[in-house]
Design goal:
- It contains ten helices and 22 strands.
- The protein has helices at residues 93-110, 170-173, 176-184, 216-229, 278-292, 311-315, 328-340, 380-383, 386-389, 401-415, and strands at residues 13-16, 19-20, 26-30, 33-38, 45-53, 57-67, 118-119, 133-141, 146-150, 194-199, 204-209, 232-236, 244-247, 255-259, 264-268, 299-303, 320-325, 346-350, 369-372, 393-398, 418-425, 435-441.
- It is globular and about 65 Å long.
Length: 442
């Protein structure tokens, strides 16, 4: 027999907000049960409406703020609350970074059982128009007779009806209606589900995913849009290996970003992973290099090296840098990028750093220092070998405070390192995403 869904009361409820959850929602307790409330901040009194009730917690959305926090600001984007792309626009930028720093410190203390000797000044930059990478959904809506382009609505699968996005680079974020009009004019308007955005220092690339073949007229429409906008236009008819350049010629379609401080340039493809925030990335690399305290006699191991975001700047000072990456294509590209920068003191290895790697040749070498930049899952598997490698100094760049804390605990409590310092970086302003950097010494 099917379980009857519990009826949710639509009556407004007044409550006080105690704290902020890891995903940026206000937390209250009603009759001893936690309630996570969208649009509410700590120390506020709000009127909210329940949106769901679960066994362990309930959820709701703010209807009215009766007593506002000093940290509350007016959201810049008129779509805030509808669009699921941002969760903290109603919180001042300074309060956001304090919240993220505290989240990092709480995770280190409670999960890793460690505390940094120094808390670094947060790395911040312009909090608007920063995002250089994104996947925009697209969908033709018959009732509206137009194509929607943007992000999904908060807590459901529907695309939000957006006019512009304030966190995307303005070259794209302030021109969503142009993309809507373009696809609406196409014969294939019902079979284009996604546009992937990738922006370098000088050029913008868009990959149009299409589920059916494009007519000659549609191809001409896209080429005309490319000429008018100056964008690089790619087509994708299937999986990632089907991405092809439509316009312009390949010789005019180079995407790149630079680290002027280190005189390096990283050329990348429209599907390649790069950091989404150029300003923060430059500051982050600069801090990582400084924390490594490099000399011209150092050998350095760069794990999860990607295209060489850290490898190349490190190589400008160190004796030699060994980069290891789990994507074979990126490894080959990294070799080419190093050569194009005139850097000859690097070597690269393809290896899945989440699996057994005990027979890898690069693990049989010795290193003075290590740079770690793992994905959200962290670096648990490779850290098991640090007892043998025993580098003098480790700089860990993290995109998840929980796995950083777990790995920091392992380094400190099992491998004899000190956590000299840690700090956050506002890579994703107006979201609850926490990016951080930590340095360990033997």
């Amino acid at each position: 027999m099917a379980r009857r869904r519990k009826r949710i009361s639509k009556e407004p409820v007044e409550t006080s907000i105690e704290s902020l959850s890891h995903d940026g929602r206000g937390v209250a307790h009603i009759d001893g049960k936690a309630v996570f409330i969208d649009g509410a901040l700590p120390a506020e009194k709000v009127v909210f409406q329940y949106t769901s009730k679960r066994r362990k917690h309930d959820e709701g959305v703010t209807l009215e703020v009766l007593e506002a926090s000093d940290d509350r600001v007016e959201p810049k984007c008129k779509h805030f609350g509808l669009c699921g792309g941002c969760s903290l626009q109603h919180m001042s930028a300074s309060a956001q970074i304090k919240y993220k720093q505290q989240a990092m410190l709480d995770n280190l203390k409670h999960i890793g059982k460690v505390e940094p000797e120094e808390v670094f000044e947060p790395i911040t930059a312009e909090p608007w128009g920063y995002r250089k990478k994104a996947r925009l959904g697209a969908k033709f809506v018959f009732k509206k007779d137009k194509v929607l382009v943007g992000f999904r609505e908060k807590r459901n699968s529907f695309l939000a009806d957006l006019e512009q996005c304030e966190v995307l680079d303005t070259a794209v974020g302030h021109h969503l209606t142009d993309l809507q009009a373009l696809i609406t004019s196409m014969d294939a308007k019902q079979s284009i589900p996604q546009i992937e955005v990738s922006i370098g220092d000088e050029k913008v690339a868009l990959i149009f995913r299409h589920l059916e073949g494009l007519s000659d007229e549609d191809t001409e429409r896209l080429v005309s849009f490319a000429k008018q906008s100056g964008f690089l236009i790619y087509l994708q008819s299937g999986g990632p290996d089907t991405v092809t350049l439509l316009y312009p010629e390949a010789s005019e379609a180079e995407l790149f970003y630079e680290h002027p401080e280190f005189n390096t340039r990283v050329a990348f493809g429209p599907q390649d992973f790069i950091q989404v925030n150029t300003d923060i990335n430059r500051q982050m690399v600069s801090r990582a290099v400084a924390l490594l305290e490099l000399t011209d006699e150092d050998t350095v191991l760069d794990l999860f090296c990607g295209l060489g975001n850290f490898t190349l700047p490190i190589a400008r000072t160190a004796k030699h840098v060994t980069g290891v990456e789990g994507d074979f294509v990126m490894v080959e590209r990294a070799k080419q990028i190093a050569r194009s920068n005139g850097i000859e003191n690097t070597s690269y290895h393809f290896c899945n750093l989440m699996e057994d790697m005990k027979n890898e040749k690069w693990l049989k070498q010795s290193y003075d220092k290590v740079l770690l930049d793992p994905p959200r899952l962290g670096a648990k598997e490779v850290i098991e070998y640090f007892g043998k490698l025993s580098p003098k100094r480790i700089v860990y760049v993290s995109c998840h405070p929980g796995t950083l804390a777990r790995d920091a605990g392992e380094l400190v409590n099992s491998h004899g390192y000190k956590l000299l310092g840690a700090g956050v970086m506002d890579m994703f302003p107006h979201t609850a995403h926490v990016e951080s950097i930590a340095v360990f010494e033997k």
